């Protein structure tokens, strides 16, 4: 089981690096499903990996990293952020 967890750690680390490299080379946009999907998946894998090794600060970091990816995709899907008021009006942040 320990070997499996270590392999997951390598896969997660590789995905982080692949996503970063593709974005740096301008092959994917930072708000694309591909980029954010790789970061979300890597974040989930690395959350499990770091938790299983008792590295709780890294577990928190990877959890937040994955949640940022989810929030980015939700924001992109709905075209902006929702402002809380009586009308719940939408503000377009794509300007």
Write the layout of secondary structure elements.
Layout: H1 2-24, H2 33-52, H3 56-77, E1 80-82, E2 90-92
Antiparallel strand pairs: 1-2
Helix pairs in contact: 1-2, 2-3
Descriptive report:
The chain has one domain. It has a two-stranded antiparallel ribbon. It is built from 3 helices and 2 strands; from the N terminus they run αααββ. The chain is mostly helical and 95 residues long. It is 68% helix and 6% strand. The N and C termini lie far apart (49 Å). The chain has helices spanning 2-24, 33-52, 56-77; strands at residues 80-82, 90-92.
Keywords:
mainly alpha, 2 strands, 3 helices, two-stranded antiparallel sheet, 95 residues, globular
Distance between the termini: 49 Å
**Order of helices and strands, N to C?**
HHHEE
Helix percentage range: 55-70%
Quaternary organization: single chain
Query: What's the total helix number?
Result: 3
Total separate domains: 1
- The number of E-state strands comes to 2
Percentage of β-strand residues:
5-15%
Shape: globular
- What Rg is obtained from the alpha carbons, in whole angstroms? 16 Å
Mean pLDDT: 89
- Specify the structural class: mainly alpha
The major sheet is characterized as:
2 strands, antiparallel
What strand line-up does the widest sheet have?
A: 1-2
Low-pLDDT segments, ≥5 res = none
